[in-house]
Design goal:
The structure holds 2 protein chains of 2 kinds.
Chain A (H helix, E strand, L loop, with lengths): L23 E12 L2 E12 L3 E5 L6 H8 L6 E6 L5 E4 L13 H12 L3 H10 L4 H4 L8 H13 L5 E5 L7 H18 L2 E5 L3 H7 L2 E4 L7 E3 L1 H4 L2 H8 L14
Chain B lengths: L4 H23 L3 H8 L2 H10 L4 H22 L4 H19 L2 H9 L7 H30 L1 H6 L4 H18 L5 H19 L3 H26 L3 H22 L1
Classes of the chains: A alpha/beta, B mainly alpha.
Amino acid sequence: MSRTPLPNTASAGKAAPIARAVANVLETDRLGVRLGRRQIITDLSLAVPEGAALAIIGPNASGKTVFFRALIGALPHTGTIRWAPGVRIGYVPQKLDLERDLPITGLDLLRAKARVTGAGDADLRRAMDLVSLGGVVARQPIGTLSGGQFQRLLLGFALMGRPTVLLCDEPTAGVDEPGEEHLYAMLHRLQQDEHLTVLLISHELNLIYRYATAVLCLSLSRRACFGSPLEVLTPERLQEMYGAPMLYHRHDGPLD
Amino acid sequence: MVPSTSAVALPVAAAVAAGLVGSFAVLRRMTLASDALSHVALPGIGIALLLNANPVLGGVTALLVGAVLIWRLEHRTRIPTEAIVGVVFSAALAVGSMLTSGEELLEALFGTEKAPGQAETLISLGLAALIVGFVLRARHRLLLMLVSSDLARTAGVKVARLDLTYLLAFALTVALGLRYLGILLMGSLIIIPAATARHITRSLDAMLAVAAGLAVVATVVGTLGAGVLHLPRGPLIITVAAGFFAVGVLIRRAD
């Protein structure tokens, strides 16, 4: 088993580069991840082209977060994970379990990343602007922020160091419905403006259908499937995956 | 009797280190674990006494071995740190109390009034400076690690290595207080001022400053008060620190 070193982020080690000249930012080949006695991911091979918006879906415990944690080098795995040379990763984790009275402000968190990665104050302010995070909110303890404010803080954190790939693990967890729409629209705008490749774990099939260019579905019992939203998000396949019919509003294709 | 400057310098330096290291112990929710970790010094002191060696050296060695042991168990098994520390180091306390006896046991647990030698003082001051320097330099990395190890990892922090370094710094901080506070009370000086600071501050830098400041004030007041009131120094220092905690709770309530 090996751990994949992070690609050439602002301060992380270098990954094994993709040998041939392709425009894929990420390739996995027969990727397998085991936690204790349970094989969570088996033989997962996929390629993510530059600029893609890959949505990862699947029922709880199907290995979505495990997949991300293997990608960032936090979990040992079998098979290979190859990031393209020069890739910089921004990571938005699932809602964190923090105590409300933790004496750490949003600015503490952003400054900590700036100091650790060597990013300047200009980069910090730029990240705050990109996610519309004002100074007053950023100076509050992170435990007191609303769900939407906290997710924007995490997104701003991920955008520091000018990433080329954004990994978002359920970025709308703990956010109300209007906030969800707003956050996804912001993500989509950022992807366009910053020329990002986005890998996104989500249960929001309507929004996935609207924004994703590809979908990876992980399942508890079946092999993973990978394809365009049109191919993957069929009622039959969703019922197979989740074990129940899934309702969502289907558009004609991803929006620009 | 007023203590000399040199007799106060080492406890003050140890108190600064305790406040800083304790802040991250409290923030990482390892309050109980860190208190129990300090107990591991006891078998080391017991073995050193049996071998007629310097008991502080025995305690330091045991603490460093304990820190590495915690780290390895934490990273190799899926047992929660609290459980590992609770079992292993409570056992250490039991074994240590069998190896140490009488007055030596009391000194190991609650400290002694005996002044350290010049070499021990200088080495301890150097260690305190090293610990303070480490926490101040690594505070941003430690902050990222306590919020989320995955976030820290994606920012380029070597999480496992930082965790080990922090545990070693913690073990050395306990070692700094072995002589004047003892095993039980040094654990308290690490935790109580930091817990008070966590209660009354709203940012990390403020918490670090207040925790170190309260630990120093408790140490100075306790040391001076012990001379005036003819009370044992260690317990008085911790009583003062606990008094600050009670005031902190009241301040927060009134907030």
